[in-house]
Structures are given as C-alpha cells and as structure tokens.
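Question (not urgent): is this output format expected?
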Amino acid sequence: MTEEIIIAGFGGQGVLSMGKILAYSGVMENKEVSWMPSYGPEMRGGTANVSVIISDERISSPVINAFDTAIVLNQQSMDKFENAVKPGGCLIYDPNGITRHPERKDIKVYTIAANDAANEMGLNKVFNMIVLGGFLKVKPLLQPEFIHKGLEKSLPARHHNLIPENEKAIELGKTLIKEVR
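Got this back:
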C-alpha cells in the first residue's frame, strides 16, 4: 500500500501541521513516510501545501506530480491540484470560499464543512483536525492509536493538554465528510 497525498490551502489553516501529524503517525506505525512542505514567504494568508507519502515499501522519491488524494482548502489550491489527482483518486475539499467546485468525473469527490464546524465549536484551531478526520474516514491508512502518538510527537509538550480536543475534532470530521460523487 502506498498513498500519495497533497494537502493545500492558505498559511494559517494548519496545512503543514496536518501533514506533519500524518507523517509522524505513519512513522509510529512503522510505515515508510515522506513529508515535503512548500510555502510562500508569507506565513499567514499565503499559499501552503505539503505532500505526504505513506507506504509499506521504501519510497524512492519524495517528489510527486500526481496524487492519490488531494485535500484542498481554498480556491487557488483547487485550481492548481484538481487535475493532479490520479484517475480513480480522491479529492476532499471544504466548500467554504470555493467558487468553482470540482468538475472531474473520473475521481471520487468528497466535501467536508470543517470551517463551519470549527466556527460552531468556537475552536478555529481544530479546523485542520476535522479535515484530517474526514480524510481518515475515507482512507483509513493509520490506526487511531498511532494518530494519538503522532499528535503527541507533533505538538509541543506544553500543548499536550489539547490532544483530547484534537482527537474529538478528528472524530467529528469522520461524521461530517460527505461523498459528492
């Protein structure tokens, strides 16, 4: 099993940390992992993306041009990465701020209203964990105990008190994701 993933959105949406948690969780589950971030000079508001590969076999290169899954969190990322999903692949997106929805018919498309859910909870910082939960529902690549270990490894010790809140957001995301086609 090899899963090649792109996660893309604005800086400040937790794109890179979502990829980091996936990568650490894969390492904890003894998988082969690659994590390669890409972001502009702006920290918040600029575009950011991260490619993550999780595999049972050695990874020959971290450079990916076509993805099994694209997680898209803004319109610019939709425009850039929709056509980079492999035929038969999967595109997951939050519809908030999306003006042109996915048009491809040869991929599975899912929507997750993570932004709305995070706002309702009053916890904008768990937006990315809601999205991660939706992804893990569609693609259960990693066991929940390893996601917990990935959170422990990714979050600084002073923020470990937030792990239960993040896990709750992941579980919420699993209930919110909806298949479009």
